[in-house]
Design a protein that fits this description.
Structural class: alpha+beta
Distance between the termini: 5 Å
Number of strands: 10
Largest sheet: 5 strands, antiparallel
Helix content: 25-40%
Strand content: 25-35%
Radius of gyration: 17 Å
Number of helices: 6
Low-confidence stretches: none
Mean pLDDT: 96
Order of helices and strands: EEEHHEEEEHEEHHHE
């Protein structure tokens, strides 16, 4: 596969909490969850967690190329836990991340997403498969305490952090590679082009293919600057990552 990507920190932060790792056979995109400010029992920051998890996932994908993606994620989370045993790994506010993965194996494009970093696949006949985990968009409340209570709960949403069983809640799909025209994995800092700014997935895929992932990230920044403060809930800016692939 041919993979290209761009990852850029939000204009108003120093550290990029997104992370990408790719090879000719797979790509993984992570979006570290912003620290809530509540005690988390961990000596490490969110960017550290995203990098460690990305490295662990890549190692499993390389060493066990046929392993189902949910099991890849389970082992990646377990391996990351083992990297900081001195921390309070039972704290629900421990650093965590979304996960989006695509892996080619045996003539199939396997896809996985956990939390709000979608995977989009377009086939040669124009059909779009959007693998999107939107559970975080349907919480009953969004204050810090409520989100902490609902994190990694079947009544709320799941993320990759310290609980390997989160892998069981990931969404997966498989598409015959011969049917795939192109695909993308994006963090919510880029999917907001579709969710906020009216682009649609075909336009985003066209931009990624014809102009490259950097053009999509630049378009996000332009749209963010053009929107009046307060137009949308949530962050005005965010880390923005897009990975694009051709079979």
């Amino acid at each position: 596969m041919q993979i290209s990507y761009q990852s850029q920190a939000s204009p108003d932060v120093v550290a990029n909490e997104d992370f990408v790792v790719a090879s000719e056979r797979f790509v993984v995109v992570l979006d570290g969850a912003t620290d809530s400010g509540l005690p988390n029992g961990c000596a490490h920051d969110v960017a550290w967690l995203a990098r460690q998890l990305g490295g662990q996932l890549a190692a499993v994908l390389i060493e066990q190329p046929a392993l189902p993606l949910r099991e890849v994620l389970r082992q990646g989370i377990a391996g990351t836990r083992a990297r900081h045993p001195q921390c309070d790994l039972e704290n629900p506010n421990s650093p965590s991340s979304t996960v989006a993965m695509v892996r080619e194996h045996g003539g199939t494009l396997d896809c996985l997403t956990l939390a709000d970093s979608p995977v989009v696949v377009q086939t040669h006949d124009g059909e779009l498969l959007e693998l999107a985990d939107d559970r975080v968009a349907h919480l009953p409340a969004y204050d810090r305490q409520s989100v902490a209570r609902l994190r990694n709960s079947d009544q709320g949403f799941w993320v990759a952090g310290t609980r390997p069983e989160a892998a069981d809640r990931a969404l997966t799909a498989a598409v015959p590679l011969a049917e795939v025209r192109r695909f993308a994995l994006v963090t919510d800092g880029v999917s907001r082009l579709v969710e906020r700014y009216g682009w649609g997935w075909p336009r985003l895929l066209d931009t990624l293919e014809q102009q490259g992932p950097g053009a999509a990230v630049a378009a996000v920044r332009e749209a963010e600057r053009a929107a009046a403060p307060g137009t949308f809930t949530g962050k005005r800016h965010d880390d923005a990552t897009a990975a694009f692939g051709l079979p």
